[in-house]
Amino acid sequence: MYTQCPECLTVYALDVVELSRSHGNVRCGHCTMVFDALPSLVETLPPDPVTGLAARPPSAEPPLMTQVVSRPIAEAFDETAGEAGEPPVVEPEPLAPAFAQPRVPMRAPRNLRWMIGCAALLLLLLAQWLVADRAALASNAALRPMLASACTALSCSLPPVKDLSRLTLLSRDIRPHPSVPGALIISATVRNDADFTQPYPVIRIALSDLDGNAIAMRRFRPADYVSDAKTRAAGLPPGATVAAAFEVADPGKNAVAFEFGFE
Q1: I need a surface site. Which of 134, 157, 177, 230 has the fewest CB within 10 A?
Q2: Residue 74: its pLDDT value, please?
Q3: How far out from the chain centre does Cα 246 lie?
Q4: Tally of domains within the chain
Q5: Reported pTM
Q6: What is the pLDDT of residues 70-99, one digit of tens each?
Q7: DSSP per residue over 59-115, as a string?
Q8: Tens-digit pLDDT profile for residues 93-132
Q9: Do both 49 and 130 map to the same domain?
Q10: For residues 110-141, b (16+ Cβ closer than 10 Å) or e, as one string?
Q11: Does residue 206 share a domain with residue 186?
Q12: Spatial CB neighbours of 198, under 8 Å, sequence gap ≥ 6
């Protein structure tokens, strides 16, 4: 397509894309005038020499487009409905009342059972850990007040705090049994130097020879030297002492040294 600058009469070739971008307005590359290219727009040039392109006056009424090339199917109208060029009237479908709409039931997450099972297993594992390490946890100074409050609410009791380093062996003795041949009497006195009640300890006694080789060893539990169950359960109060005496078989004349320990 071609158009002509009305100022310098220069004829230019252009296409529809260029016209559509500026809505028909173009700038002359020779005199830089901006002009409307539509009035002088032609598809072919007249025979040489080209002196001027005929200008077409604007029409008061827009031209009617009748030569259809294509149109979208979704926008096609039924020619039998109404007059030509008028779209058919589409009646809207009645909407059902809100209370008549079917409700979709709420479904729980598929992994909800799996999550509940994992939480239950974690709680069970935590409970087993608390039971297994209850003595060590109860001995923790930072955790004991919180655990004591929990036990008060649950009507339970904490085991007494245990600190073997605060137990002092005041006296110890090993002598032949006065009435039983081949037996020994081992006695010891233990004091709790801590400022809190401790559980009665397990007393370990080891016998050895002159070279330090162990000949015999035995552990005595609290029930072996404290007969009253309530006294054992109450523990050894601060500053209190307990006397323990044990009857054991004589391991022989090679046992010349003995050692006491607490567990």
Answers
A1: 230
A2: 55
A3: 58
A4: 3
A5: 0.44
A6: 667 655 445 554 455 555 565 655 554 544
A7: PSSPPPP-------GGG---TTSSSTTPPPP-PPPPPPPGGGSPPPPP---TTHHHH
A8: 555 454 445 565 565 566 788 888 888 999 888 878 766 7
A9: no
A10: eeeeeeeeeeeeeeeeeeeeeeeeeeebbbee
A11: yes
A12: 160, 161, 162, 163, 166, 167, 192, 235, 236
Quick one: which of 155, 158, 223 has its CA closest to 196?
A: 158
Q: How many Å apart are CA 45 and CA 114, to the nearest integer?
A: 82
Domain that holds residue 1: 1-56
What one-letter code names the amino acid at 98? A
The first and second tokens of residue 260, run together, are 């006491």
Q: From CA 139, how far away is CA 132, in angstroms rounded?
A: 13
Which two structure tokens, joined as six digits, stand for 38? 């539509």
Amino acid at 50: V
Query: How many CB atoms within 10 Å of residue 14?
Result: 13
| Nearby residues of 130 by Cβ (< 8 Å), 6 or more positions away | 137
C-beta of residue 192 within 8 angstroms of C-beta of residue 238: yes
